[in-house]
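G.,

No rush on this.
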Amino acid sequence: MKAEILTVGTEILMGQIVNSNAATISELLNDFGIDVVYHTTVGDNFQRMTRALAQAEERVDFIIMCGGLGPTEDDLTKEVLAKHLGEELVQDKAGYQKLLDYFEKTGREHTPNNDLQVLTLKGGEVLKNEVGLAVGSFIEKNGKFYAALPGPPSEMRPMLSNVLLPKLAEKTGANGKLYSRVLRFYGIGESQLVTKLADLINQQTDPTIAPYAKEVEVTLRLATKCKSEQEANEKLEKIKQEILKTEDVGEFFYGEGEYNTLANVTVELLKEKGVTISAAESLTAGMFQSTLCDIVGASEIFKGGFVTYSQETKAEFLGINAEELTQHGTVSEFCAKEMARCAREKSGADIGVSLTGVAGPNTLEGKEAGTVWIGIATKEGVYALEHHFARSRQFVRMNSVMKALSMVHKELLSCS
């Protein structure tokens, strides 16, 4: 099957946002075994959208329209698709009730234009929105498949993965249902991971193995089509174990799941073990603590922490000896260890974490940008490790947070 992704949005053409949805959809369709042969972006214009749809019909079997399902006047996707296919738009009752419940719960005014989000093609099938309010549509007509997905990535991806692709598998008589797992790795680059797994990747047939580089980590998507979930789990678990047994690979694996980040895994492990945590941050300015507290239930394990950017606040807030701090500097093993120790002692937490270093782009205390010390303090003792990150200031800070989470995660796994 050949597919075309028809992304809708004038804001994309104006360069106001990046069309990340096209990359995401291509990734998931290719995992499914569908070749994406065209990407088209069109503005919020009825005539141009209609022409783009007609052109796509001439060259592919499956057209995915993404964006334009909202409540405003320029959200035209379902209207264009309905008129082009000669279908009527009708209200999805379940979606409408969800919309009513949302406005009642939030206390916001329910204006008539919001009801546009729950319209769907009468001759097609509703694609349930697990995150937002705008329902999607899926229809087979004249030997071709059409789908309309919402624009926000947080809504689009689960609708595509969990709702649309299983429906497509049923319609096309594919060999069972699509099942997939996402394995997550931190501390190893994509090229290194692919090299280590070259034999497995090159010999793959079923399940398939697809590597994807994220901003500060790498994921592997394992996918298979099976008639039962049990069969799929057996196949996916077997290939997963082969991957993790590969030399210099398993040590970088931290968890599974599309959205199961290292922060999620670390917070869950802290909760599971009943361990509390505190932090003292310099170059990351509270980013580590904020990342922890983005996770539901973080209040169970996070005692509170410190942001001590200057040498003076490190001494005043944390109680680090000012003379020794001047002697060793803030970008040092001494400072990282003392910050972690003091954060733990002052908060009463089981683990203290510290992050100090040079975010860049300028040097600090004669240390190059990207030089980072991360400390860990537990009842057994205190240690700190030096790291060197490249690229931008923001990347250094993000990677520092990820490395700190990784160190905490490994610390928790090592203790009984």
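When you get to it, here's the other one too:
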Amino acid sequence: MYLTPRQILLAGATDLIGAQLLDRLLSEPTIQRVQAPTHMPLAEHPRLQNPVGEFAALLAELEGPVDVAFCCLASTCGQTDSQKTLIDLDANLVRVFASRARKLGARHLVVISAPGADPHSTDPCHRVKGAMEQALQAQGWPQLTITRPAQLLGPRSELRITERLTAPLLRLLPGKYQGIEASVLARALWRLALEESEGTRIVESEELRKLGK
């Protein structure tokens, strides 16, 4: 079953995935408004509402109604330098954003996690990601879509030599470990937002690539 969300809330619009998703959302004629709080101004658009400032403080300024919320804040396991950064972002800010979106009326949250997310994992990143997923499920969302993309491929604002060198190999890896283009992921996220169901759905990277074709 499919729906037509018209009021969108997007977190992470300046990041690789969020920027691709924002372009996708603003190209959809059915969408009336996209709220995208950021720390730096975005290009103006008649259907974009872009409060600028410290992200946590901006949450109180957001307005309803909201149909679908996208959270593209979650860090990539390979890019985070410390467990504290992971906890601040994934365990705290993502949860607070989701709670605010729910209060504004959103019934569907689409969030980015990571392959291997498990609250009992011995890997710090996978453990924090798993705890984040558990916290979101405890919020009682009517519809929660957790996506677990593999390593992201695409142009970034900052230079990452390691990612540039490994990108060709990531395209050849099998199944859920194969790298995924940010533009493909953005299309998959939008398609998932159009699907109406109940409860929690976890979508691994291999399925995300198929949905984003």
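Residues 159-172 have pLDDT under 50 and may be disordered. The longest strand covers residues 143-148.

Enjoy the weekend,
O.
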